[in-house]
Design a protein that fits this description.
Blueprint (H helix, E strand, L loop, with lengths): L4 H12 L3 E7 L2 H4 L2 H10 L3 E7 L8 H6 L5 E7 L1
Antiparallel strand pairs: 1-3, 2-3
Length: about 80
């Protein structure tokens, strides 16, 4: 059975009541849905400086490297409460 990633993340962030977070994953639309909408939802929930950073744009690796390593969609989701 495939885990339901689209629904666990917001609740996990709220329950833990953490001051800051950084989550790195392969944020594909099929796995997580619309991440820009999710970023907006986190901001609406009171999180600040929420940012989804593409880690395949040369900062951490190139798109070519990401493809070769099967990391297409790799991103870092950060923010704070």
């Amino acid at each position: 059975m495939k885990p339901d990633y689209k629904n666990w993340m917001p609740e996990g962030l709220v329950i833990s009541a953490i001051a800051a977070f950084a989550i790195h994953d392969i944020f594909t639309k099929g796995k997580y849905g619309d991440m820009q909408a999710f970023v907006k939802k986190l901001k609406d929930m009171g999180y600040e400086k929420v940012e989804l950073m593409d880690t395949t744009n040369g900062l951490f690796m190139t798109r070519k490297e990401a493809g070769r390593l099967m990391l297409t969609g790799s991103a870092l989701l950060t923010g704070r409460k």
